[in-house]
Design goal:
Layout (H helix, E strand, L loop, with lengths): L13 E10 L7 E8 L3 E6 L9 E6 L5 E10 L3 E6 L5
Antiparallel strand pairs: 1-2, 1-4, 2-3, 3-6, 4-5, 5-6
């Protein structure tokens, strides 16, 4: 039997299934993604781009008007997903 890694999140992630974008700064192109799950502290993203090619820090935006956005730091990636922690408190 394999040992499962111990959960280290401070808050529970909730399923989200929400379209979002990853942006790298003003004037630079954005990357489409989907928020798979989200908590107060971070999220897991399915990215329409190679996760390994994303910068370590970026801004995640959701809602069509961009009214919800958070600065993020990459915690881990695999072939399909990127896990991020939010680098500032929620507004």
């Amino acid at each position: 039997m394999l040992n499962q890694p111990q959960e280290q999140r401070k808050t529970i992630r909730r399923p989200a299934r929400r379209a979002a974008t990853v942006s790298f700064g003003r004037g630079k192109p954005f990357v489409n993604c989907r928020i798979v799950d989200i908590s107060e502290d971070g999220a897991r993203l399915a990215v329409a781009h190679s996760p390994a090619d994303l910068p370590h820090h970026f801004t995640l935006s959701w809602f069509k008007d961009g009214s919800a956005k958070r600065d993020c730091e990459v915690v881990w990636t695999d072939r399909r997903f990127v896990a991020v922690k939010f680098t500032e408190p929620a507004p």
